Amino acid sequence: MIDLRLDRVSKKYRIRQETEIDGTRHGPIHKLRRLWRQSHEFWALRDVTFEVERGEALGIIGHNGAGKSTILKLLANITTPSSGEITINGHLSALIEVGSGFHPELTGRENIYLSGSILGMSRGEITRKLESIVEFAGISEFIDTPVKRYSSGMYVRLGFSIAAHLEPDILLLDEVLAVGDAAFQTKCLKRIKQLERAGTTIVFISHDLYSVKRLCDRVLLLDRGRIIASGDPGEVIKTYRHTSRITESKSDNGLSFPNPNPDPGLQFEVEQVDVLDREGRLKHELRTGDYVRFRIVWRAKEYLEDGGVELGIYSENEVPLIRYSNQPISGFDIAFKPGLNAVDLEFQQFPLAAGEYHLSVGLSRPMIAWLHRNDNFAAFSVSQGKIFKGEYLLDSDYSVMAVPHRWSQDIEQLEGNS
Amino acid sequence: MSENISTEELNDPAPRQQKVIRRISFSPLRLFADLTELIQYRDLIVTLSVHRLRVRYKQSLLGVSWALLQPLSLMVIYTLIFSRVAKMPSDNLPYTVFAFAGLLPWIYFQSVLVNATNSLVSHSNLITKVYFPREILPLTYVIAALFDFLIASTILIAMMLYYRVPLTPNVFYAFPVVVVLTLFACSMAFLLSASQVWFRDIGVAVPLLLQIWLFATPVVYPLSAISALPRKVQSIYILNPMVGIIEDFRRVVVRGMPPDFYLFNISALVAIAILPVAYIYFKRAVATAADII
Fold first, then answer.
1. What's the gap in Å between the CA of B183 and the closest CA on chain A?
2. What would be the CATH architecture of the domain defined by A256-382?
3. Closest residue in B to A169 (Cα–Cα)
4. Per-residue pLDDT tens for B98-124?
5. In what order do the strands lie in the sheet with A201-205?
6. Which residue among A74, A77, A114 sits closest to B47, beta carbon to beta carbon?
7. Which residue, among A72, A114, A160, A174, would best test binding to B if mutated, counting the most B CBs under 10 Å from its CB?
8. What is the pLDDT of residues A157-183, one digit of tens each?
9. Portions of chain A given CATH number 3.40.50.300
C-alpha cells in the first residue's frame, strides 16, 4: 500500500538580485525593467517522482542545495509545488524545527496545549499525554513557569517532546538529532524506533549518513533538484561519495580541503579544513602515528556565544571512527565571531591505520540545533607509518585503530607453573 | 488517483484520509474541501483565540477594561467635537448615545482590519514550520474583536438605561446585522492579510484607509446628513456596505425602528458576494507565502 507518492513534482523559486541602480538618471519604467531582468528562476526540484510504501523507512540524502529542504517543506505542506502532485495517505507529522509556536509569556503547560494543537492534536489527546510529555522533556519542576525563563536546552527539549508524542501515520524527520544531551538523544531514537516498529512510515531527510544507513530501508539521492539514485542505503551512499567528486586536494601546497559545496547564503558555514604539522605548515602526507593538527576554518555572519564545531572521520563503511566536537563532547568553549574563525584539533599520534577515509564537518548550537553540516566534505587517505615495533605495518583492512599499547608477561600469574 | 483498489485496501480496518498537494488554482471545488478542513481544525481555532485573548489581558494593566476604553474615549472626543462645537444633529437622540451606537460596530470592524492585516506576517515563524489552514490566523483576530464588541455593548446598554432610551423588540434585528458585519470583516481580513504578505506597504495604508472610510460611513453623523449631497454621489455612497450596517445597527438598537431593508440588502449582498472571492484569493496568495514571508 502506498502511503506517499510524489508525481513529477517541480518547484521553482524566483530569486531577485538587487543591484545598485542610479536613481537620478533613469525613470521609474527603466528601473522596473531592470529589476525584472535581474530576477531569475531557480528550479529547486525538477520532475521528482517516487513512492513510499506503508511501513517503509525512506532516507533522502544529497548535498546542500540539492533540494532536500524543499521536499521537506512540500511534504509538510508548508508550501505548494509549481507543478506535479503529492499524494499523502494518512496523517503526516513533521518532527522538525521544534519549539515553534511557543509564546514566551505563557507557562510550559499552556504552551504544550498551544503547540500541541498547532501540530494537530486535540485538547483531549494533549491532556492524556501531558504527563508523559513533561516527563520525556525532563522539565516537571518548571511546567508552570513562563517559558521565557527556560534555558534554550529546556526549550528545545520541550518542543521536541511535544512533537515526539504525535502518533502520525507518516513521520517526517530531519536533522533533529542535535537536540539535547546523549541521554535525551537516546530517548528520541528509541521513540523513533518505537514508531517504526508500530508500522509508521518514515521519511528521513538528513546529512547524517551514518544514521540514514542505520534507520532506512531505502535511500534516494538528490542532486540539483533531481533524483539520481535510489535503492539500498549502502549502495546509494557510495554513489553519493563518488558523484561528489571529492578527491584529495591535488594542490601542490598540501592537504587542504575547501568546502566542496559552498553556500554563501548560510549564516554559518565551514569554509576549509587544513591538515597541518607541528609548525603549522600544510602536510603533504598523513601517516599513522603522525602528529597532526586539523585546522577548521569557518565563516560566521553573526556573533554566537557558545558555538559547536565538529570534525568527523569515517571509514569507507560509514562508521564514525572519530567524531569530536569542542562542545558538547570535549568541553572546550568557542565563541563565534563575525567573519572568519578557526580552531585546531590536535592529535599527538594520529590513531588511524593506512586506508581511505572521509571527512565530515559540522557547526552547531551545542545540543540545540545544527547550523551547518556536511558529511561529505573531503576524502583523504592515510599512509602507513611505523608506529609500532613489529615488522607488519598496520593497514585499515586489518585493524583500523592504531593505539599505543603494551604487551607484558608476568610468569608468576600462571598457577601451577614450575 | 488512478490505481485500482487492492485487496489490502479493501480489508483495511482504518481507511485513511487522503490529501493531495498540488499547485493551487482558483477551483471553487476546493472550497468544500477547504471548509471541511477548517472544521477539522476547530480545536486549534478555539485554542488560538483563547490564547490571543489571554495573552492580551495578561500583559496589559487595564485588562478587560481596554475593550471598553476605546469606544468610550472616542465617544467623548466625538461628542465634544461634533455635538458641542459643530452642533451635529443626531436622530433625536443624545449625541453620546448616537455616537456610541455607531462607534461600537465601527470599532469592531476597525480592529479586525488593523489587527488581521499583519496576522500572517507576524506569525511567519509558524507559517514556515508547520501546516495548518492559514485563514485561522486572521479568523482568531475576528473572534477576539467580536469578544471585545460584546463586552463593550454592555456599556451601550448601560447608557441606554441612563438616558432612558427605550429598547424595542426590533433589537433582535441586530443579530443579522452583526452577522453581515462579521462576514464582511472576514473578507477584508482575508484580502488584507494575504496582500500584506506580498506587498508590505498595505499595512501602512490601512489606518489611512480606515480614517477615510470612517467619514464615508454615517458613524459620527446621521445618514440623513447625506441628503445634502448630489444624487449621483448619494447612490455611490450607499454602495459602501458599512453604511447599511452602521445605520441599521443604530436604527434597531437605539432608535427602536426596524432596519432599512434596502440598505441592509445592499450590505448583505456585497458581504456575501465578496466573501468567497476574498477566501479564494487568500488561499491562492498564501499557498506559497512560506517561500517569501
1. 25
2. Distorted Sandwich (2.70)
3. B16
4. 999 999 999 999 999 999 999 999 998
5. A92-95, A170-173, A201-205, A57-61, A218-223, A226-231
6. A114
7. A114
8. 888 889 889 888 898 888 766 677 778
9. 2-241
